[in-house]
Amino acid sequence: DEQGRINPSLIPSLDDHSIVLLQAGNVNSGAFDPIDEVANLVKDTGAWLHVDAAFGGWVRACHSRSFLTRGMERADSWALDCHKWMNVTHDSAIAICRRPDSISEMFGVQAAYLVQGSLREPNHYTPELSRRARGIEIWATLKHLGKDGFNDLVERTCNHAKYIAEELEKLGFEILNEVVINQVVATMDDDKIDDFITTVQKSGKTWFGPTYWKGRKAFRISISSHATKKNDVDIALSAIKEAIS
Predict the structure, then answer these.
(1) Is residue 114 domain-shared with residue 28, that is, in the same domain?
(2) Which of 117, 138, 159 is the endpoint of a domain?
(3) pTM of the model
(4) Which domain holds residue 236?
């Protein structure tokens, strides 16, 4: 639809050879596919339902916005990036699968020099045979923030996005998306937008990049840092005002 959400009525007949991919947070608009509705269609067909929740999945922890992810728990698998809204270092992500045997069958490695024990072998559940211990910083962040901390992080950054969208409209920009989480897609005259984005980037006060939305040239703002305060948003807005003056 106009926000990038899938239309469930257009999904064809499904069987056990089908994979249905849904978005929990469109990379531009931030919109969520109707996961629960699609899960009803997938149920009992044998199809695999996957949810790309790279950044939007963290909305699940936000009291006022968790409804956007309704039905995500019904998926066969879903993925989360931890180096985005969770704010841990690159690269870090989580893949969760309802059927663990499917992962071990895909990634499991057998070799003469690899001793197989009776305990769970971590390398059977990841593409890499050797990797750094990404889970430690994920655990530490979850332990430090807890449920209330994550709720505050998501709520605060989403409110920042709504505020910046309102201020951009006052400056004459057109907002192209419904600001439901931390994403803002805005545009201006096509012949001015490239120079505008370059000027803002060179200011050193803030950074955002270009994108295309529904065939229109635009720019995309994503607010996800735990350190961002309203004063930082105002500094970003001041750079935008200077760039159009």
Answers:
(1) yes
(2) 138
(3) 0.90
(4) 147-244
Q: How far is it, in rounded angstroms, from Cα 65 to Cα 31?
A: 12
Residue 3 lies in a domain: no
**Distance between CA atoms of 138 and 177, rounded to whole angstroms?**
31
Give the CATH number of the domain where residue 78 resides.
Answer: 3.40.640.10
Same domain for 200 and 240? yes
Per-residue pLDDT of the chain (245 residues; tens, 9 = 90+): 999 999 999 999 999 999 999 999 999 999 999 999 999 999 999 999 999 999 999 999 999 999 999 999 999 999 999 999 999 988 899 999 998 888 888 888 888 998 888 888 888 888 888 888 889 999 999 999 999 999 999 999 999 999 999 999 999 999 999 999 999 999 999 899 999 999 999 999 999 999 999 999 999 999 999 999 999 999 999 999 999 98
> Which amino acid type is present at position 159?
N
Q: Are residues 125 and 168 in the same domain?
A: no
Domain final residue pick, 91, 109, 138: 138
